[in-house]
Amino acid sequence: WRRSHSIYIPPTWRKAPIITDQAPENYTVFPTDDIVLKCEAKGLPAPQYHWTKDGKDYDPSLDPRAVMNTTSGTIAFSTTGNGVSIRNYRGVYRCYAKNEYGTAISSNINLITESTPKWRKEAERRFVKEAGESLVLRCNPPSSM
After folding, report:
1. How far apart are CA 134 and CA 87, in angstroms?
2. Whole-angstrom Cα distance, residue 30 to residue 50?
3. Distance between CA atoms of 104 and 43, rounded to whole angstroms?
């Protein structure tokens, strides 16, 4: 009499995507900054990503300065040193990670673009003191924007 042995092979678990990392909800950039809109998710099978900007579909492949990561939904915009106004990128972005088992949606990412801060020039003042005398220099920084 022969005894048979069987091996249990569990089914491959399928999972709807979940967002594991994303850009901050309020993201401020300046003209010298590159812009990185982070969106990472996990799921089985691996999710496909797409974005919206201001409620409309946004396709980063149509922007020559945008590159979407091949293994996540993260988009990097190269805007420094090429004369491109970062104002073109301001708006509310949202990332969608989708597979056949569901869709994960990031929080709204409000991309705020600021101009280079302008510092008012201080008048130069000369002080003459003898060695050993004390001197107090007042600092009056501009108020924050």
Report:
1. 49
2. 25
3. 10
Compute, in degrees rounded to 10, the torsion defined by CA atoms 118, 119, 123, 125: -160
Q: Which two tokens stand for residue 27?
A: 């993201």
Q: What is the pTM of this model?
A: 0.71
Distance between CA atoms of residues 67 and 63, nearest Å: 8
Name the amino acid, one letter, at 8. Answer: Y
Residue type at 56 in one-letter notation? K
Query: What distance, in Å, lies between the first and last C-alpha atoms of the chain?
Result: 87
In angstroms, the CA 15 to CA 99 distance is 9
The DSSP code sequence of 62-121 is G-TTEEE-SSS--EEE--TTS---GGGG-EEEEEEEEETTEEEEPPPEEEEE-PPP-PPP
Bridge pairing between strands 56-58 and 26-29: unpaired
The residues, any chain, with a CB within 8 Å of residue 39's CB and separated by 6 or more, are 19, 21, 22, 23, 49, 51, 72, 73, 74, 75, 95, 97, 106
The pLDDT tens digits for 96-125 are 999 999 999 999 999 998 877 666 666 677
pLDDT digits (tens, 9 = 90+) for 48-69: 999 999 999 999 999 988 999 9
